[in-house]
User: What shape does this take?
Amino acid sequence: MNATWECIVVGGGAAGLSAALVLGRARRRTLVIDAGAPSNRVSHGIGGLLGHDTKKPAEFYAEARANVAAYPAVELRAGFVASVVRRLDLPGSGPTTTSDGAPDTAASASGGTFTVILADGTRETTRTVLLATGMDYRRPDVPGLEPLWGGSVFHCPFCHGWEHAGRPLGVLDRGEMGVHRAQLLRAWSDDVTLLTDGPDELDDAQREDLEARGVTIDRRPVAGLDADGGALSAARFADGTTRPLNGLLIPVTLHQRSALATQLGVDFAPESPLSTETIAVDPMGATSVPGVFSAGDASISMPSVANAIAAGSAAAAGVVQRLTSG
Ligand SMILES: Cc1cc2nc3c(=O)[nH]c(=O)nc-3n(C[C@H](O)[C@H](O)[C@H](O)COP(=O)(O)OP(=O)(O)OC[C@H]3O[C@@H](n4cnc5c(N)ncnc54)[C@H](O)[C@@H]3O)c2cc1C
Assistant: This one.
């Protein structure tokens, strides 16, 4: 079967666009299909991205798309990929079709194409697929949190700590990871409170460590977050009392945004506190399934725009290598 595309990139965020730029410059017929919801779109600015530090995400993505659009081999298309079906074109046997679930170890190094099916029913065929779908950042269910997410409520101090430095900051977590985050956040403020939302799950050594670092432990059950002018002003407790806060570091867990990785049968990386659903890749973004690559949050353990760009670039080189040898 002759595939229309040499690579279909699913997701046009930082990782997918970075990959598309490299693929376009390598003159590889590439289709980027993007649902248009990068994870940081609600954020006030991108913290810590060299050359674009604090730039509004919408501006950054518009510039990135313009970079990619300059290369005729690449098409950027708005849409949602509903499923990907792997076809095996085994030497001598004619085209055979696999279901979209089971990984087939009979896939030869040279063989296989993919049919990508969009939510609108459109079908496209490709020699390689690059999953750059990002992740769903699941947040604690705290009243008042959502409007503040990506601003004064954040999951990454490296991204958002600077903007809140020197002010009263909170960490919402009751266990070991809360200790770690509170220790970390002290680099940005002398006034850090660990909100355990009820009894803590710390041992004596952890409590003493936090005390020695000047971190307050507040065990009052949290009822919600108060805002003033669109920014966090206080944590509100079940007993009606409050604690003034200007920034809150919250725990998140990352989850695949769709079943594509599972459908394709890729291996996942070992469990971490951040995610149980990270796609396992080699340094060039290759997954355990021949012809399937991944980059960005979907397959890296430290999510950031810079890391997504780097991973996208490496995965594109991996795709080109495969197309060259296959
Ligand atoms: C609130 C917030 C603030 C952040 N702030 C910063 C920061 O300041 N600095 C920093 O370095 N990092 C920050 N990050 C992390 C950073 O945004 C991510 O690490 C980075 O955006 C990951 O890029 P990605 O391309 O892998 O995924 P994403 O940017 O999430 O892009 C994935 C794209 O794929 C699309 N997609 C998903 N599934 C499909 C499908 N089936 N079909 C078609 N398209 C699909 C999505 O709609 C999206 O457009 C922040 C994250 C969050 C959540």
